[in-house]
Automatic annotation (TrEMBL):
Subcellular localization, as worded in the UniProt entry: Cytoplasm
Range of residues in the leader sequence: none
Cellular component GO terms held in the UniProt record: cytoplasm
Keywords assigned by UniProt, alphabetized: Cytoplasm
Annotated ranges, domain UspA: 1-146
Pfam families referenced in this protein's UniProt entry, alphabetically: Usp (PF00582)
Superkingdom as given in the UniProt entry: Bacteria
Organism: Ramlibacter agri
Name this protein carries in UniProt: Universal stress protein
CDD domains (alphabetical): USP-like
């Protein structure tokens, strides 16, 4: 059914279930699996202009975090079951939701798998949700895993 699945991961423990689900779907469908992490510079903008070295440190730390998140997905993909080739991508210069949706389009994925951290309704209304924004922007089905 699915030929190319895109997994959005931030490396958190909450994302592990979404990662396992994406891996199982890829194995079951014989699909390609691409894991993506977005390095979002926008939370730091404004502060970085006053201290460019601070911005560089923020981006370096974000890339380190992205590498760890993608390594965790690879670790789970190698953890038993049929062999699975996992491709990884780091998207830069985009908000998390836009980067995920754009990567899915660029990679021609036919499904996005993303975790839901289960934040309460009030926090979701105030802060918004990457998952909610991906649902709004994606042009292909999105599977939200709690």
């Amino acid at each position: 059914m699915f030929k190319h699945i895109l997994l959005a991961t931030d490396g958190s423990a909450a994302c592990d279930q979404a990662t396992r689900t994406a891996i199982e779907l890829a194995r079951t469908n014989g699909a390609r699996l691409t894991a993506v992490n977005v390095v979002d510079p926008y939370p730091y903008l404004g502060i970085g202009q006053a201290n460019p070295l601070g911005f560089q440190a923020y981006i370096a730390a974000a890339h380190t975090h992205a590498g760890k998140a993608l390594a965790r997905a690879a670790e789970l993909a190698d953890d038993g079951g049929a062999p699975l080739m996992l491709e990884t991508r780091i998207v830069e210069e985009a908000t998390a939701a836009h980067g995920i949706a754009q990567c899915a389009r660029d990679e021609k994925a036919d499904l996005i798998v993303i975790g839901s951290h289960g934040h309460g309704a009030l926090r979701k209304l105030v802060l918004g949700s990457v998952t909610t924004r991906v649902l709004a922007e994606a042009t292909m089905p999105v599977l939200v895993v709690r």
